[in-house]
Each structure stands twice: as C-alpha cells, then as structure tokens.
Amino acid sequence: MALLEVKNLGISFGGLRAVDEFSITIEKGQLYGLIGPNGAGKTTIFNMLTGVYKPTDGTIVLDGKNITGKNTIEINRAGIARTFQNIRLFKDMTVLDNVKVALHNHYKYSTFTGVFRLPRYFKLEKAMDAKALELLKVFELDDNASLLASGLPYGDQRKLEIARALATQPKLLLLDEPAAGMNPNETAELMDTIRFVRDNFDMTVLLIEHDMSLVSGICEKLSVLNFGQLLCEGKTAEVLKNPEVITAYLGE
Ligand SMILES: Nc1ncnc2c1ncn2[C@@H]1O[C@H](COP(=O)(O)OP(=O)(O)OP(=O)(O)O)[C@@H](O)[C@H]1O
C-alpha cells in the first residue's frame, strides 16, 4: 500500500522553476532513494514534503491524508520527520535532551504542572528519560547520553539526528545526504543502521544521497531528478544502468 503519493509537484523561486511536475509513489516499508546532480531540486522536494516551502502546484498525500500546503508542525504530526544535509542538532544540549525535545509531542503536561513541578511532571519526565534512553540504545549512544551533542564524533551526531527524528514517531523518515562527510567505515555502519530502523521501527525511508555505495547498497527503488524534473524511476540496479542517468549524473 502506498504511504506517500506525490503528484505533479512544482515550485518556482522568482523566474527559476526549481521543481516541475514531480511525482513519486512510495510503498510502506520501502527504502527509496532520490538522486541527481547538484542543484537538481532534491532538497527543495524535501522542503515541500515537510512544509518548509509551500508547493505552487501538485498534491502530497501521506497515508491517505492530503497534507499539501500544511506547515512543518502539522506535517510532523501527520507523520513525516527528517534529518538535514548540514547536521542541525541542539549542540549545547545533552545527547539525551536532544531526543527528549522531540518526544514532547507525545508526552504532554500543562505549563502549570511544569512550573510547579507537580507529581505528573516528574512521572512524565521519568517516562521520557526512559523512552529517550531506549532510542539512544538502538544507536549505541546511550553511554554518551549526558555528553553535549557537540562532543560526539561526526558519525554519532548523524545517528543522533536520526534518533531524534524517530522520537517524533513518524511514518516516513526523510534523510538528506546522511553519509555526507562520512568515511567508508562510517558509511557501512550507517547502512546497517538505516536497515535496522526500517526493519525494527516499521519505517519507510526516502533518502537523498550522492554516495553511490550507499545508494546501491540499500535503496530498493530510485527516482532521478535533473533540472527539477524526473528523469527516470525504477528498481535501483536498472536505474543505475540507464544511459540517460549515466550521461546526466553518473558520468562516463
Ligand atoms: N529559497 C530559495 N530561493 C531561491 N532559490 C532556491 C531556494 N531554494 C532552492 N533554490 C534553488 O533551487 C534549485 C534546486 O536547489 P536544491 O537545493 O533543491 O538542489 P539539490 O538537488 O538538493 O542540490 P544538492 O545536491 O547540491 O544539495 C537551485 O537552483 C537552488 O539555487
């Protein structure tokens, strides 16, 4: 069953048509890649899917619900979470608190309860600590829960960003160049992590990536974007053999 159905999505910035007539269907549980040359419009598509930009054309349906034009908070509540090309953690907060911030949607208490430290406050804070630690354990970050996020090695910061996105309990996880800046060992470990997340969190993943080892290693399907338009889509191995894709993106 399709989890995400995007039809004829488009956006212009002044005279620039950054994305035009873009459509994609992602089934529940799929690991799906969005690839293409620099400036092709990939991040702009993520920004439209997450409500950062409002599309000028097209529709976005998540799990049967039309979310076109909703804001970032509404879209996160509907079930889309993301990570960013340039890591955006709360660097001066602890590893644990980075995840707890994202849990707040699901553990609510009133300002009154918080300010006066009523018993419900302590109960929910304890429950959030436990849930956050459980998530950190999945990523083997629990031993560093009390460190500042800025103190983590680069690869661990990327993992923490994924843990924080998962804390919002999404249906669809968008990863924007998760392997950027990683060495081959870290990339291989990241692939295992993404597979683990898909299998153990019943997650559907759409990722943007330039690292072809990661793309061919984990993506089941690909869409290739060129100059804002869909160049081709299909099973990963077939797409990577497509002469048009080789000319436009892969070179040689
Ligand atoms: N807010 C904006 N205002 C004006 N132009 C923008 C804006 N956001 C993106 N663009 C333009 O839209 C086009 C697509 O950019 P985008 O960042 O989506 O590409 P990309 O495929 O993600 O590239 P990369 O692989 O380098 O990250 C570019 O020409 C970019 O300059």
Automatic annotation (TrEMBL):
One of its GO terms (molecular function) is L-valine transmembrane transporter activity. Keywords: ATP-binding, Nucleotide-binding, Transport. The keyword ATP-binding applies. One of its GO terms (cellular component) is plasma membrane. PROSITE patterns: ABC_TRANSPORTER_2 (PS50893). It comes from the Bacteria. GO terms for biological process: D-alanine transmembrane transport; L-alanine transport; L-isoleucine import across plasma membrane; L-valine import across plasma membrane. SMART domains: AAA. Residues 4-252 form the ABC transporter domain. InterPro entries: AAA+_ATPase, ABC_AA/LPS_Transport, ABC_transporter-like_ATP-bd, BCA_ABC_TP_C, P-loop_NTPase. PANTHER family: AMINO ACID ABC TRANSPORTER ATP-BINDING PROTEIN, CONSERVED COMPONENT OF ABC TRANSPORTER FOR NATURAL AMINO ACIDS-RELATED. This is ABC transporter ATP-binding protein. It comes from Hominimerdicola aceti.
